[in-house]
Structures are given as structure tokens and as C-alpha cells.
């Protein structure tokens, strides 16, 4: 079974020489794989993920990403790897993190797997 949790955040960044200062709505999906719980069938209890995901969301939301330690070059791929590295110690069975920016149908994104 695989369980996932999504969160969104609004943030500004720049990626010289490709882009100057601007902002995006980002969407993150955190995927956890595991044997189904005998009673509830889930791979992970979403309540147990909540505090870890929420702590990250609060750090990222309404931030200037370039100012965050480890995000000096905030490409999609570097942000996804940064999220993975911070959740990894706390979320057993995490298989991948997806990150996208923009609206459905016009989004750009990436998938980070260990
Ligand atoms: N694989 C990637 N390639 C590129 C990335 C990236 O994160 N991953 N980022 C960039 C630059 O940021 C580029 O300037 C993109 O600018 P951005 O405004 O973030 O995205 P759009 O050009 O699509 O702008 P819209 O406002 O959505 O039109 C280059 N390559
Ligand atoms: Zn951008």
C-alpha cells in the first residue's frame, strides 16, 4: 500500500541567470509505502505525518526561498531534495517526494527518489 500527503506553499525565489525575483504556488506530495495496517489498511497514519509536514510548510510558506539554508539555488529539483532530506529522519517508508509549481494542466515539476 502507498499513502500520500500533499501540502501547498506560496514562495518567492530567483534563479540567476534564468529568472529574476518572482513567486509561485508550489504543491508537494509525500509518498509512504508499507504493509497495510491490519485494521485500517493504511501504509502510514496521516495524523503521525501531520506535524512533520506542517513544520516544513510553515518554514516554506510566504518565504523567500533563496534565503533558506540549503536553498540558495531553489530550482524545483533542489527544493524537492531539500524537502526529502528534512522529512527522511522522521518518516519511515517514504519512497518519493513530488514537487510542482503552477496550475494543473500547465504545471512543471519533478520527482525525488532516494
Ligand atoms: N529542470 C528545471 N529547469 C529549470 C528550472 C527548474 O527549477 N528546474 N528553473 C528555471 C528557472 O527558474 C526559469 O527561469 C523558470 O522560471 P519560472 O518563473 O520559475 O518558471 P516559468 O518560466 O515557467 O515561468 P511562468 O511564470 O510559470 O511562465 C529554468 N529551468
Ligand atoms: Zn520560478
TrEMBL record:
The keyword Acetylation does not apply. Zn(2+) binds at residues 13, 22, 24. Pathway: Purine metabolism; 7-cyano-7-deazaguanine biosynthesis. It is an enzyme of class 4 (lyase). It catalyses: 7,8-dihydroneopterin 3'-triphosphate + H2O = 6-carboxy-5,6,7,8-tetrahydropterin + triphosphate + acetaldehyde + 2 H(+). InterPro entries: 6-PTP_synth/QueD (IPR007115), 6-PTP_synth/QueD_sf (IPR038418). Keywords: Lyase, Metal-binding, Plasmid, Queuosine biosynthesis, Zinc. The keyword ATP-binding does not apply. GO terms for molecular function: 6-carboxytetrahydropterin synthase activity; metal ion binding. PANTHER family: 6-PYRUVOYL TETRAHYDROBIOPTERIN SYNTHASE, PYRUVOYL TETRAHYDROBIOPTERIN SYNTHASE. Belongs to the PTPS family. QueD subfamily. Catalyzes the conversion of 7,8-dihydroneopterin triphosphate (H2NTP) to 6-carboxy-5,6,7,8-tetrahydropterin (CPH4) and acetaldehyde. This is 6-carboxy-5,6,7,8-tetrahydropterin synthase.
Amino acid at each position: 500500500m502507498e499513502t500520500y500527503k500533499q501540502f501547498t506553499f506560496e514562495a518567492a525565489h530567483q534563479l540567476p541567470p534564468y529568472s529574476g525575483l518572482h513567486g509561485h504556488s508550489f504543491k508537494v506530495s509525500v509518498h509512504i509505502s508499507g504493509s497495510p495496517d491490519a485494521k485500517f489498511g493504511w501504509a502510514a497514519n496521516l495524523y503521525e505525518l501531520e506535524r512533520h509536514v506542517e513544520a516544513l510548510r510553515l518554514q516554506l510558506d510566504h518565504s523567500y526561498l533563496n534565503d533558506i539554508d540549503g536553498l540558495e539555488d531553489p530550482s524545483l529539483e533542489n527544493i524537492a531534495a531539500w524537502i526529502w532530506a528534512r522529512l527522511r529522519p522522521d518518516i519511515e517508508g517514504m519512497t518519493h517526494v513530488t514537487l510542482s509549481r503552477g496550475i494543473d494542466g500547465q504545471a512543471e515539476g519533478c520527482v525525488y527518489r532516494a
